[in-house]
Design a protein that fits this description.
Helix content: 55-70%
Pfam families: ACR_tran (PF00873)
Protein name: RND multidrug efflux transporter
GO molecular function: xenobiotic transmembrane transporter activity
Shape: rod-shaped
Number of domains: 1
């Protein structure tokens, strides 16, 4: 009975420990989607995305 009680306490402890190992984290993410109809991906990058990225200076 003592061995079963120790095993049961161990199982309960491991289940509670798993919650503490993986805290809920909200990472700050910003997404900007650019499009240019009927253009190749390289053109969208050079004509739209790069100028937009260069216009914003984040410290």
């Amino acid at each position: 009975m003592i061995v079963l009680a120790i095993i049961a306490m161990g199982v309960i402890s491991v289940r509670n420990l798993a919650i503490d190992l993986f805290p809920e984290i909200d990472l700050p993410i910003a997404v900007v989607a650019t499009s240019y109809p009927d253009a190749a991906p390289q053109e969208v990058e050079s004509l739209v995305s790069k100028p937009l990225e260069g216009g914003f200076k984040l410290d």
